[in-house]
Amino acid sequence: MLPSPWDEQVLSAVLDSVEEAIVGIALDGSIELWSQGAEHLYGYTAAEVKGQSFLSLLPIYEVPALQAVLATAGAEKMTGCETIERLHKMGSKVSVTVRRTAIKDERGVVTGILESGRAERQNTQDIPSEAQLRLLVEQMPVLLWTTDLRLRITSNWGSDLEYSEIDAGALVGRTVSEYLKCNDTNTSPMAHHYAALRGESVHFEYERQNRVLDIHLGPLRSPSGEIIGCIGVGIDITQRKRSEEQVRYQATHDALTGLANYRELMDALERELRRAERSHHSFTVMLLDLDDLKRINDRFGHLAGNRALKRLADVMAGQCRATDLAARYGGDEFAVLLIDSDERMAQHVAQRIEAGVRDDQEEPSIRVSIGMAVYPGDGRTAQDLLGAADQALYGRKRKAACPNVTVG
């Protein structure tokens, strides 16, 4: 480690060389000091590189030379200026003129070197395009981030997203698990980051703070092809997902009542039949008929008839569990798919629906007839179950002698 506090020589170099890239390197190669000039020249912030190996900023052919300097720092005099190549954060090479000074502790023992560097003049023409690229990335309507091998965030951009309150670079130094408040490596997206460190490219959707991100995550590689971390890109697809959900809702629900439509009922019934065959459980199909709808339409008008259909639908929705499915079967007929139920439970639900209809004080009054079929006793196919429920329904309608139907 470099001496702490730094001696006057180091402090003077840091203070007097505002335009230079000042880097303090311990004998083990770790970075102990990183000036603003170094950040400007190499693109990394101090938080990203302090404690990391300086060798990662070197092209592979420059590594042996610096290793030799570190190994002989205590025995040989530092050379004068020399021009070498370094790697910029964006992956480009930077030609730098450097001079080195040995750093000693109070006993005169060399503990590291101080490297001062300036970019060669011919490379200064690259700075405007690099600055343009950084400006573009910072304003892109996406989230971008990179990490090191320990999943510590080394850069982040994307503050142009309206919902995002994260400024560019604000997450640098934090780990992905700290930001997500999740230490479980098996949960998404932590597991996906570890997959990227193994060289995999993954694509997934992730919901956070009521927003949905479409994320592409892959390995971040050095110019030599070695995996040095992860790189991720997240695009906000919240509006698209909401539009898709709205389209799906419209395709699977009845516009008047808001209940599931015939198509959704049949799909759900087929799924439940397959599940029941595997798990050997029972379920119930109920068919309901809004009695005298034609009379209501003829006497009060079709708006009142539509309102009567909606009133029955509201009662059904209120008496069904979240796992059940209430649907408009067609015209004045409705259906309920009661998951994991038997005849006794179905009778209880039917009685609650009847009571809800009786308690409805709105005019004109409405009545409902109900028939049911239980899997597997009344049938093992959708056709058989619906046929059995339909027969039970119209059997009760024929026996009805009062406004409320008694369900047998």
Describe this structure in words.
The chain has 408 residues and is of the alpha+beta class. Helix content is 37%, strand content 25%. It is built from 13 helices and 14 strands. The strands form 3 sheets. The protein has a 5-stranded antiparallel beta sheet. A 5-stranded antiparallel beta sheet has the order 7-6-10-9-8, with helices on both faces. Strands 12-13-11-14 form a 4-stranded antiparallel beta sheet, sandwiched between helices. Strand 6 and strand 7 (153-157) form a beta hairpin. Helix 10 packs across helix 11 (302-319) and helix 11 (302-319) crosses helix 12. The longest helix is centred in the middle third of the chain and has 18 residues, at 262-279. Mean pLDDT is 85; it is low at 122-127.
Q: Topology of this structure?
A:
Elements: H1 8-16, E1 21-26, E2 31-34, H2 36-42, H3 46-49, H4 63-71, E3 82-87, E4 93-104, E5 110-119, H5 126-139, E6 143-147, E7 153-157, H6 176-180, H7 190-197, E8 202-208, E9 211-221, E10 227-236, H8 238-252, H9 262-279, E11 283-290, H10 293-300, H11 302-319, E12 325-330, E13 333-338, H12 343-359, E14 368-375, H13 382-399
Antiparallel strand pairs: 1-2, 1-5, 3-4, 4-5, 6-7, 6-10, 8-9, 9-10, 11-13, 11-14, 12-13
Helix pairs in contact: 10-11, 11-12
Which geometry do the CA atoms define? rod-shaped
Count of individual helical segments: 13
Percent of residues in helical segments? Answer: 25-40%
Q: The biggest beta sheet, please?
A: 5 strands, antiparallel
**Mean pLDDT, as a whole number?**
85
